[in-house]
Amino acid sequence: MLKGGISFSTPAEKEIQPQAQPNKRFLLQINRPEEVQTWGSGALSK
Region annotation Disordered: residue ranges (predicted)? Predict the structure, then answer.
């Protein structure tokens, strides 16, 4: 059984990329990037 969760947040200054193709794989980061505090999306708690 797994415990935890996944949060998504996108910096406002980054251009959104096209939708990913089916079965696309992404690496998840263990730690949040330091600059996440300035993104202001509210998706991640401080």
Answer: 1-23
Distance between terminal CA atoms of the chain? 26
Contact 36, 44 (CB under 8 A): yes
Handedness of CA 32, 37, 5, 43 (dihedral sign): negative
What is the rounded distance in angstroms from the CA atom of residue 37 to the CA atom of residue 25?
Answer: 26
In angstroms, the CA 22 to CA 9 distance is 21
Residue that has been written with the tokens 């509210």 in this structure: 42
pLDDT tens digit string along 1-46?
A: 667 776 666 666 666 778 889 999 988 777 877 877 776 554 445 4
